[in-house]
Amino acid sequence: MKVAVKNNVHWVGKIDWELRKFHGDEYSTHRGSSYNSYLIQEEKTALVDTVWAPFAEEYVSNLAGEIELETIDYIIANHAEIDHSGALPRLLERIPDTPVYCTANGVKSLTGHYHRDWNFRVVKTGDRLNLGGKELIFVEAPMLHWPDSMFCYLTGDNILFSNDAFGQHYASEYLFNDLVDQNELITESLKYYANILTPFSSSVEKKIHEFLGLDLPLDIICTSHGIIWRTNPAQIVERYLQWAKAYKENQITIVYDTMWNGTRVMAERIAQGIGNEDPDVNVKLFNIAVSDKNDVVAEVFKSKGVVFGSPTINRGILTAVAALFEQIKGLSFSGKKAAVFGSYGWSGESTKVLGESLRQAGFTVVDEGLKVQWNPSEKNIEECLAYGRKLAKALS
Predict the structure, then answer these.
(1) Which is the catalytic residue, given 10, 27, 42, 145?
(2) Is 79 assigned a catalytic role?
(3) Is 225 an active-site residue?
(4) Is residue 58 flagged as an active site residue?
């Protein structure tokens, strides 16, 4: 399928309606995704990125149905990850001498993935490729979110091919931001940022300001996943600048796992106490054992404060909570406060473990937490309500 983007620029990618997990089993994609590839046909023809490897044969066949492959003068590899470059081996079997433009790290990544000696052309920030009347300007974007990542910008049409920045895992036949459900779009954009780009927030902010400093007009942002921003593309740039600065809303998120419901009862009463003290704060509860971890990460990202709970098991915490900590630790959230709670039978180490894990993940833990032995009594429930009221203030 070939879809017009602007003038001589067309989308030639693949919509993946069935995708439900990405990066192995690490990222949930409830709404599918797309692998966006773009064809630029000026006096010279350039292809920007390809698609994920399982769709390589289909992609090359469809592309050959649109143009003679031999007319492709340049291939631009903005990023070497398999979901972007997966069709390159099949395509370059058909047009083996076509130059592949990428960063120096891109050469390392592509040869590491495919072990092929292709016709690489290394580019750096500020380099230009003349297409005949229009040019592609390359902008290195290391660690957004791989060392090899880069953007490229098409003069004349004022299009930024932004690689993994500004995208979402979101399948839609409409392809453009003004045609899709806006709540879904922003939800998936934030989830994508929270789960993938948060560790690189300082680089995000720096790279955006670097691009803005080039003073290039921006009409369209062509992402590598999800929709194309053609109506007010500055809106997603502005959101990225907000998300990159220790983002938080007026929300407190409670994340827990429970064994015999004692910790669940505590979570619900703590939430009630928070709401009683501060009716304006948005309180959300998630049992992480039965909740989608990436959705929970997105809620933690939005929160000014988080409260983690687990019963004690084998002098530690339940594995679903421990696994989420491993993920959160790598995301390097900043500027967030936290508290802990848990039930126990005879030893009661869970709150200590929870607190240490949160500190290691960069959270400011406001106290030593609330522990309840066995199943919460009426007195314990009152303690949970009081703890919630206390946290409404302490987590602000």
Answers:
(1) 145
(2) yes
(3) yes
(4) no
- What's the pTM value of the predicted model, to 2 decimals? 0.95
Residues 48 and 134 in one domain: yes
Residue 396 lies in a domain: no
DSSP 3-state of 236: helix
Q: How many domains does the chain have?
A: 2
pLDDT at 21: 93
Q: Tell me, yes or no, whether 16 and 103 share the same domain.
A: yes
Pick the catalytic residue: 83, 148, 278, 383? 83
pLDDT of residue 356: 96
Residues 231 and 351 in one domain: no
- Residue corresponding to tokens 């003679």: 68
Task: Find the mean pLDDT for residues 180-203.
Answer: 95
- Which residues does residue 313 pair with via DSSP β-bridges, in sequence order? 316
> Of the residues 225, 257, 278, 299, which is catalytic?
225
Concerning whether 367 is annotated as a catalytic residue, the answer is no
Instruction: Establish if 349 belongs to a structural domain.
Output: yes
**Alpha carbons 191 and 79: distance in angstroms, whole number:** 21
Range of the domain at 280: 252-391
Q: Which of 49, 73, 164, 299 is catalytic?
A: 164
66 in active site = no
Please say if 192 is a catalytic residue. yes
Tell me, yes or no, if 169 is annotated catalytic. Answer: no
Active site residue 295: no
* Of the residues 243, 273, 292, the one at which a domain ends: 243
**Cβ neighbours of residue 35 under 8 Å, at least 6 residues apart?**
13, 14, 16, 49, 50, 51, 52, 55, 83, 84, 86, 224, 225
- Is the distance from CB of 252 to CB of 223 less than 8 angstroms? no
CB 45 within 8 A of CB 73: yes
pLDDT tens track for 43-59: 999 999 999 999 999 99
Q: From the candidates 79, 84, 344, 387, give the one annotated as an active-site residue.
A: 79
Question: Could you tell me if 304 and 378 lie in one domain?
Answer: yes
SS3 sequence, 260-303? CCHHHHHHHHHHHHHHHHCCCCEEEEEECCCCCHHHHHHHHHHC
In this structure, the answer to whether residues 59 and 99 fall within a common structural domain is yes
